[in-house]
Amino acid sequence: MVGGRIIIVNYNAGENLFRCMTALLAQSETDFEVRIVDNGSTDGSLQYVPADQRFSVIDAGGNIGFAAGCNLGAKDNTAPFLIFLNPDAFPEPGWLRALFLAATKHPDAAMFGSLQLQAADGKIIDGAGDCYSCFGVPWRGGYDQRLAPLPEYAEAFSPCAAAAMYRTDWFRRVGGFDEAFFCYLEDVDLAFRVRLLGGRCMQVNSAVVHHVGGAISGSTSGFSIYHSARNRIWTIAKNVPGLLLCAIVAMHVVLNVYLLYWRRTASMVKPMKKGIRDGLANLPRVRRQRAEIQAARTASVGTIARAINWSLRALRTKAIVLRPW
Hints:
Oligomer: single chain
Shape: globular
Largest sheet: 10 strands, mixed
Strand content: 15-25%
Number of helices: 11
């Protein structure tokens, strides 16, 4: 049995996949296997998968989305850890060893995030742990800010699934990623469900990857705006417990009004409105999920409230929000 299974969902990643494969072959930790789930790529990128027995390709049969692709790659896993890596994320040689070491030192952590630096400039942060705002919006901590010293281990709300590790038993316990999300916020939703059962997220800043970001779908494309707007609604409706739900719903409505009427651009209005409509239209299904999730919850409302960030300034500045472990 290997120590961890690395899952990469590929969809026309081009030469980014080559850089990703090269970085994995250079890892100082060699106790891993890699499953590349191909979502119907047509760009020939699979030619970059190395002829190494640790690497194999799973044909998804079409574009089933990031969430379903991750679950497909995790199927039948027997390793103690599941590691998810974007094809446009290029880990430094000590990345996987740092994640394994953190898990060994801290058996109470359920999930682990990497320090993401921008691939174009390794001195600029792409994300130092995902944060979750009381406005129902997540952000990558420190995005587009200059790198400064960070604690090796700290607690974040969620790992970013562009480069994240989960204990396999925790991943299975919460049922993996919600495939209805397709992509965007599926990692925050998963982390929320883990937290509701008492699990915590460790941000491992010694585990470094260089991330292109938005290389496939575009960070401000209509595709990303639509899925983000829809999935934000589902994340709130499924996971926010107790009286917190009323407060966060109210603040999320205020945020959407602000985005649509004060900060809007011509390209964002149509996909955002469609995302909101589709998110609300599917609330009956989501409420059924909520009933199961909340019935199983063991974390107190206060614990979840403390994990959420309540600062508007932190949201606006995309601040790094880490708590001592």
